[in-house]
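Chapter summary example: a protein plus 5'-deoxyadenosine.
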Amino acid sequence: MTLSDLTLDRDGLIAALECTDPAFEEALRQEAYRVKVAHVGKNVYLRGLIEISNRCRKDCLYCGIRRGNAACPRYELSDEEVLAAATYAARQRFGSVVIQGGERSDTAFIQKITRLVKALKQIGTENGLPLGITLSLGEQSRDVYAEWFDAGAHRYLLRIESSNPDLYRKIHPQDGLHSYERRLEALYDLKAIGYQAGTGVMIGMPFQTAADLADDLLFFRRFGGPMIGMGPYHPNAETPLTRSGASYPSDEARFSLGLKMIALLRLLMPDINIAAATSLEVFSPRGRVLGLLSGANVIMPNVTPEAQLVKYNLYDRKTLLRDRQLNDVLHSDQIRIGFGQWGDAVL
Ligand code: 5AD
């Protein structure tokens, strides 16, 4: 197919996702880049990612830090380590930080996050620029979400992982704790409280079809902005999904699907923030840059202390370098770095 054949309804999206003609894919990415620049400009906004803990009460069949993975050494950053990482991010003039970690419901952890959010506000102010604070800590009760919001967090990331309830059930244990309906409810709770709620999916998973991915894109449009982060699936050798031997698309196919999903989403939702996920970097050192050139406008440089970084192994081959020389990586006429800006989407 050619770009002029593309329609943004379900059938059109499926056709685009299934078309592997390199000329079409290149034209689609260029068009998405053009639409991005016209709507949100060339800026890429930076969110310093702090992976606070890999302890998790969930047991997702694809994830390396699932509760049942005894081979995963567990850690939790101290308050001091989190604040040092955030100070580094503030001094680098990243506008925001993301606190991400396994899902936990113990009171000590909940209180620690509340305390840290308040301290992070302070750090931003001391460094001359209030930090935007994003949390990504799984499903929590509405009260906990509200407590963290009142402490000063204003964005929350919670991927739906797949918008197809049947596929969701195939990649999660059926134990009552991993419910598609509960996850959706949590997403709507976040919105109701006033968070900028971001969601997303994994791309190129076992059992996933082009129709599933098209439906994911339409789900994002129904859910509304202001931000989406999605990235290619990668196997982790210690997980049931990998051990089951279920097949999934090749590296090349997942990379091109990942970029195509970004490009199609930019055409569907021209004004939102779209992250170029870390998992794009597995395929190429320019993975995220290609994401930016395909319509994404946010990246999340990892600022987790090095000793712990290696233990947040969601999947094998996760890039283990802290992102230091961003200027070098991102330097391009086609990208501008939005230093010192929160970079909220204007919808
Ligand atoms: N491959 C790619 N992404 C993964 N995540 C978890 N496990 C994997 C994997 N094996 C993603 C999930 C989660 C995010 C923090 O990491 O989408 O929401």
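Key point: The chain has one domain: 18-331.
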